[in-house]
Amino acid sequence: MSILAADKAVxxxxxxxxxxSLLRYARSRAYQVVLMDTRAETLAFTQLKLxxxxxxxxxxxxxxxxxxxxxxxxxxxxxxxxxALLKELAEVKPLRGDIDLFSEAAAAPVAAITGSNGKSxxxxxxxxxxxxxxxxxxxxGNLGTPALDxxxxxxxxxxxxxxxxQLETTRHLxxxxxxxxxxxxxxxxxxxxxxxxxxxxxxxxxxxxKMVLNRDDPLAQAPLSRDRSAIGFTSREPxxxxxxxxxxxxxxxxxKGRTLLLxxxxxxxxxxxxWLNALAALALAEQLELxxxxxxxxxxxxxxxxxxxxxxxxxxxxxxxxxxxxxNVGAALAAVDGFSTEYAGRIHLLCGxxxxxxxxxxxxxxxxxxxxxxxxxxxxxxxxGAFSANNQRPASLTISQDLATALETARAEAKPGDLxxxxxxxxxxxxxxxxxxRGAKFASMVGRLGA
Length: 451
Description:
- This protein is α/β, with parallel strands linked by helices.
- It is built from 15 helices and 20 strands.
- The strands form 4 sheets. A 6-stranded parallel beta sheet has the order 7-8-6-9-10-11. A 6-stranded mixed beta sheet has the order 15-16-20-17-18-19, with helices on both faces.
- Strand 12 and strand 13 form a beta hairpin.
- Helix 6 packs across helix 10, helix 6 crosses helix 11 and helix 10 packs antiparallel against helix 11 (292-301).
- It is globular, with a radius of gyration of 23 Å.
């Protein structure tokens, strides 16, 4: 078929959540659209075809002729741009993603948040702060509602979580405030090396008017950051214009410079890493000129997100935490470090799954903070090797076939006052349908312990 007759012809790759938002956006502008997906046609895809009879669909691979005829190619974030055909086409026509299109259409300021870990927490927390300040704020992007579906002339602030995949196809985001919260190995099955992953992440700073920088992470810095307004956050005592932690009379506080803002005991979100998430949100709020008192009030009420260091139960004096969203090594390290302030040497870690090609070696750094580590899933042996490196393995290190068995083993070793932490450092797809399914099943297992 020819698609050359329309004023603008768009080829969309990907029929998932983001791909369908691209479809809706294109049709709202009366563009002629063809949509393709490399996956075979499913019932859901058939229903999509029935809902859009004016759109031509192709499933089971890329349709080269359609791609060559299209004026623009719009790419879902799950599509690997390293494919030879897409690399060739990128030389002659735009390959665009949803965030790139959104940045052209959004009239209100945008806060853009990326990083390996903590994105969703900071996004939803900043959104809550903006709402507490009376702004008509909406949140989404890589979290919840796709960015293009958020577009509304009544919106006063967009708070977007953006992934490295989305940033690959974003030329100029132009955020009012942007941050890379942290960088650690993730998606190494998608990137050739850590540099390629880093280069994708820092695209969030393209055109940003103000920035928030993690002073503790050299990989998360912005290019030419001295030329633009930047403040930072740190796990240490902060410089006068930055946010950080101060210990006064044995009590930790969130602080701006020397000014104490809030005792950490007043936070509902748990763990030192969540203190840093709170600091990042406060720094972004300042860059957006939000009222600090209202933001602190919102912070005190914020309970966090499911499957992110969420309290599950206390059974026989042992606390159970669900951090199933920790799908990479950096997230698991952050969780262990975060809980070590209170539970050093009393943490029993449940870890394993699909490692996505990561290097697990950094896990050895937290061995001394653990009472035990109980590994399961496809890459359990690889995780075991990392924990065994340099004679730093935990006192107890076991491998189980599945999470249920690992939990039983950890429970047998735990004592009152200990913490059992599900923070897998891996994706879940070897044994679960997603991190939500993994976390829900873990919570159900724990619930049966106290029955």
